[in-house]
């Protein structure tokens, strides 16, 4: 399998798992009395511990290797605190105030920030296809937010606020760990980042009453922690070894697709024609990015 094809399938698989976890989170928020802070802390702790156990069994000598160098340790802390925690909390807050489908669509503004950041960092013009995808994605998000009423916002303001912040956080989550992944296994990087991130939420979990979960509720928590977090993030990070961050970010459109299908079919969330059209436009950008291989054009420095 070609490296780019492998990267595409890794990114798609991770985003489908991620989208499914959003739908499960919506069920936990609306039917099981769970709060975003409690769920984020639990999912990060569960996934972080499992990933570190997995990494320790497969490569026991490397478990603490990331802490042996000041540079890699600092990058890991930055990834945990500036990438992992914000991307988790903002996304689930958007789900809590809106729904999983619209939250994942709003989060999709992340690739736009990735493209802009890479253009500044590497002094490179974004590719023409990146501009086209950005415009298509923005219009798709616009349809989702307005639900066809193009002059008024149809989502709760807090849902839009947290959704856009989730997009910014997603960009940081994609860009920060690139250097770490060139030297350390993705399971190790993700596991430590999740475990560190979970510590921020532990005081809230320890001082709050346990939600009155039934068997289905606890099953949802486990699903969110294992499938929707551990495997989702691991597959997504693995894809960064084969694809450019902008491409991987655009492929995340499979996340809102899976979230939408589950929330509509299983949770019976209302989803009209404008939202469907917006979702299809967002999904179209994934294919445009996946099958585009034109390199970036470097910005020429002007003489001083």
TrEMBL record:
Tell me the domain of life. Bacteria
Q: Which UniProt keywords apply?
A: Membrane, Signal, Transmembrane, Transmembrane helix
- UniProt membrane topology term: Multi-pass membrane protein
Where does this protein chiefly localize? membrane
Q: Where is the signal peptide?
A: 1-25
Pfam families cross-referenced by the UniProt entry: EamA
Q: Tell me the compartments it is located in.
A: Endomembrane system
The record's similarity note reads:
Belongs to the EamA transporter family.
Protein name as it appears in the record: Drug metabolite transporter (DMT) superfamily permease
């Amino acid at each position: 399998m070609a490296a780019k094809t492998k990267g595409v399938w890794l990114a798609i698989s991770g985003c489908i798992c991620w989208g499914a976890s959003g739908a499960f989170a919506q069920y936990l928020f609306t039917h099981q009395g769970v709060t975003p802070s409690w769920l984020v802390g639990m999912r990060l702790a569960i996934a972080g511990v499992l990933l570190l156990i997995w990494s320790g069994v497969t490569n026991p000598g490397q478990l603490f290797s990331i802490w042996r160098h000041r540079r890699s340790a600092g990058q890991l802390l930055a990834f945990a605190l500036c990438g992992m925690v914000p991307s988790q909390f903002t996304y689930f807050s958007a789900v809590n105030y809106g729904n999983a489908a619209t939250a994942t669509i709003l989060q999709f503004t992340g690739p736009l920030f990735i493209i802009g950041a890479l253009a500044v960092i590497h002094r490179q013009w974004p590719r023409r296809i990146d501009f086209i995808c950005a415009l298509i994605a923005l219009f798709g998000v616009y349809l989702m937010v307005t639900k066809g009423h193009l002059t008024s916002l149809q989502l709760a303001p807090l849902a839009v606020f947290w959704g856009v912040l989730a997009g910014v956080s997603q960009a940081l989550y994609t860009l920060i760990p690139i250097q770490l992944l060139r030297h350390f296994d993705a399971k190790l990087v993700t596991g430590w980042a999740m475990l560190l991130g979970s510590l921020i939420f532990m005081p809230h979990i320890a001082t709050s009453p346990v939600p009155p979960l039934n068997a289905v509720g606890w099953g949802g928590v486990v699903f969110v922690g294992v499938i929707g977090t551990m495997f989702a993030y691991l597959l997504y990070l693995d894809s960064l070894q084969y694809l450019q961050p902008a491409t991987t970010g655009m492929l995340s459109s499979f996340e809102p697709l899976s979230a939408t299908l589950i929330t509509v079919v299983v949770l019976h969330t209302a989803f009209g024609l404008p939202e469907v059209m917006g979702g299809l436009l967002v999904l179209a950008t994934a294919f445009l990015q996946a099958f585009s291989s034109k390199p970036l054009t470097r910005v020429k420095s002007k003489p001083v």
